[in-house]
Specification:
Elements: E1 8-12, E2 15-21, E3 37-43, H1 47-55, E4 60-66, H2 70-82, E5 85-91, E6 99-104, E7 113-115, H3 124-128, E8 137-143, H4 152-163, E9 167-172, H5 180-184, E10 193-194, H6 198-205, H7 210-219, E11 224-228, E12 234-238, E13 244-246, E14 249-250, H8 259-272, H9 277-291, H10 304-313, E15 315-316
Parallel strand pairs: 1-4, 1-8, 2-6, 4-5, 8-9, 9-10, 10-11
Antiparallel strand pairs: 2-3, 6-7, 11-12, 12-13, 14-15
Helix pairs in contact: 1-8, 6-7, 8-9, 9-10
Domain Carbohydrate kinase PfkB: 7-299
Pfam families: PfkB (PF00294)
Organism: Microbacterium galbum
Length: 319
């Protein structure tokens, strides 16, 4: 695989999202419901994070797989137009491009109807052949939903990155299946920053108490645990200090799709600038809040200036 000319490489989920707002209920039979807006967007814990990083001015490449279909063309062309290096985004004709249908409720929440598709076609050799010279941060996004590379291939990639002095970040999406722990736990000793949502962090750790979840992940080898908590902001724990909390920005929420991926992008952007966890968290929170103001993972953030504006003018919520 060619050398990525990028400071950040994202690896994992690439999804085409079809979103509609607002959906009060699914009409029975062949009934019709009129919506305010329908959009097709780039999504997924690798793809959306890469697009947000590119908009923030970061040089970024992405690694994953799409199908040989219209949605695959959309993902590759749209990401390339945003400035993402898609050399490592393989086309796998045997699978349809991963896609999700998202009916958005008025409170911004949304159920998801998902096809795994091409994300199951990412291969171990896609990771083994990835050149990492010059890369500063490697982000692995979507573990538990990456059957082709979950487990040993992901562990080997993270270990190789760590040995090369690259900062490693990771997000995962537990399915509740028996394979989740095999996909995630062996990776954690090689993860510098783990970015689970609070719901995922608690469910995977098997607890309802955040302090117990923090202990679980730190004991498993994570260096810094960054738990996103939606409107409540974020909780950050290191071996020196646990449960440092930072509030989110108060915004008018349209859709929460992609907020976690935007947070990851903002946090990584801060790390690249040499920021501490507090400043990185502030950037992440601003990015996540901006994305919540529109429909889809690509809403709200157009440049770093948008983040600076929200931070200068935004109202903070309660911790």
């Amino acid at each position: 695989m060619p050398q990525p000319a990028a400071r950040v490489v994202t690896v994992g989920l690439h999804v085409a999202d079809v979103l509609g707002r607002y959906v009060e209920a699914i009409p029975p039979g062949q009934g019709l419901a009129l919506l305010d807006e329908i959009r097709l967007t780039v999504a997924g814990t690798a793809a959306a994070t890469a697009v947000d990083l590119a908009r923030l001015g970061v040089s970024v490449a992405t690694v994953g797989a799409v199908g040989d279909d219209a949605l695959g063309v959309f993902l590759r062309s749209t990401m390339a137009a945003e400035g993402v290096d898609v050399t490592g985004l393989a086309v796998r004709p045997e699978r349809p491009t991963s896609a999700t249908m998202l009916p958005i409720r008025r409170d911004g929440s949304r159920p998801a109807l998902h096809v795994i598709g091409s994300n199951a076609a990412i291969r171990p050799e896609d990771l083994a052949s990835l050149a990492l010279d010059g890369v500063a941060v490697l982000h692995l996004g979507g573990s538990c939903l990456l059957p082709g590379i979950d487990g040993p291939p992901s562990v080997d990639l993270l270990r190789r990155a760590r040995e090369a002095g690259i900062v490693t970040t990771m997000d995962f999406i537990p399915t509740g299946g028996a394979g989740d722990r095999d996909a995630v736990l062996p990776c954690l000793p090689f993860v510098d920053y783990l970015f689970p949502s609070e719901e995922d962090a608690l469910s995977f750790a098997g607890t309802q108490a955040l302090d117990e979840a923090v202990a679980f992940y730190l004991d498993a080898g994570v260096q810094t645990l960054v738990v996103t908590r939606g409107a409540a902001g974020v909780s950050i724990s290191t071996r020196e200090e646990r449960d440092m909390r930072f509030p989110a920005y108060a915004v008018d929420v349209v859709d929460t799709t992609g907020c976690g991926d935007a947070f990851s992008a903002g946090f990584i952007w801060g790390l690249l600038d040499g920021a501490g966890v507090g400043e990185a968290a502030q950037r992440g929170l601003a990015c996540g809040s901006l994305v919540a103001t529109g429909l889809g993972s690509d809403a709200g953030i157009h440049s770093a200036a948008d983040v600076a504006r929200l931070r200068a003018e935004g109202v903070r919520g309660a911790v």
